[in-house]
User: What shape does this take?
Amino acid sequence: MSIKLKGFRRPISISFSKTGDLYCLCDGLFKSLKIFKNNKIIKSILISDLGLTSAQTIVINNKSQLIILDSSNQSLNWFTLDLIFLFKIKIPGTNYGALYFDSKNLFLSVNDIFKVFRIDDNLSILEFYDFSNLENCLSVDSILFKNQKLYLLDSKSSNLHVVSIKDNLHKQYLNFGRDGKSFVRNPTSINYINKKFYINDNKNYLIQWFDSKLNFIDQIGGKGTDLGKFDLPIFSLVFDNNLIICDKNNDRVLSLDINNKKPFTLVESQFYPGELRRPSGLATDDKGNIYVSDRSNNVIQVFDSNLKFIKILNYSNQPFDRPASLAIIDDKLAVIQRKRKGACINLFKINFDNYSLDYDKKFKFKYKLNDPQDMCSTIYKSFLIADTLNRSILEVNLKGEIINKVDMSKISGNARILVKSVYCREDGHIFTADFEKCIIYQFDRFLNLICKIDLSKKLNHIKVIRSIYANKKFILIGVRGINQLLKINFEGKILKKINNFNWNHPVKIINDKNGKVIIADKENDRVVKI
Assistant: This one.
């Protein structure tokens, strides 16, 4: 029987005590450590309350001591299992990968100096292996040390390096690619059970296993929420002959029986109304109420203008399947659902007296949508849709008819352009962006190109543009990097870095009827008004 816990989010590292107590490090806006015993949570504490600035990974050693890697403070910190601080040591480097204990030795990989260190019982930091000379070994995020062989799993180049410590012989395994079967993307964890290796193929959403000579045997997974599916299985370890998995973006910890290959849930998130999980879309009605497509909870939640929870929108008690975005025209609500079997857009009528929904219709287009990720309404009572992998912006009327379309691959000259955002300004001008190349496009009301703003050279620290908002004075963009929300002018110059909210993937930006900006801060599970 699994533990369902309110606010359980993004497990990234786990360890077990000798008595079977589960210690779980959870990522997010308020990073925390949770302890479970006999199918109950017995403690939850913020990492900051432990006196740490950050926590990247945890491990319990053979002395029943909990060790936490605080990467911001460049330190390893020892605690009792009751979380009483013992001592800490400063560690070299700044970019850390694996923290691994093999029943005798504590190992740490430091990727910016390409070294693996061993920390002995006297807390001396000893250089164990220099991997700077290994070809394509860039970021060691998981380590195994077995039979005098060092296994270095490189998450960045998607390779496994095996080094014999005795004679320094080196072999390389795995290849970058999709669909698994020894092809991996961002492999992040390696374990060994009963003469088999298990590798977390994080961005292929798989667990792959291999024989003792690293020949591929089988795999389980694929992206999804059902048991047997994963959404970023970032970390795993062996306990009681099972593989225990942090299924990060599904907000759960799983146990995989290696004999029958069946997973079951140990800990998962419990839904509570008013609590968000990866909000991805926003819209407002004429009263100023805020509608949120709550993607991971599979609901649409309504809040008042002060972000006080009102109600969950239902239609015939049916859940929404991964609602990605939404838009409102009068009493009509359109919702993009990025279902596993394909995306669709449904239209509903909102009953404002009790905030219920009546189903209206499914938009049926002559061609198939391909991963649409954003939408908004226009002042002309139409919807704009960012049809991401069709690389187009569509304008659709309330009948579900496409009345205008722009092919962004032709406009941009980029056949692989990713269109993940769209916004309509109060004068009808339309804005979107090239997600990867960081170019903003401005169109008139009829989707004729007015201008483009190329930020790729002006702001080379920007990795992607995930969201966009514009008024007549400035543009707001949600990006990835150190400063994730930027206010710029129409020449691409930064006016302000809005970094006092500790953003983590601001994926949708709109304004209310009073001009206040509202932001869906997806990976912080919140909506913010500024």
Remarks:
- Helices lie at 408-412, 455-458.
- The chain is about 0% helix and 55% strand.
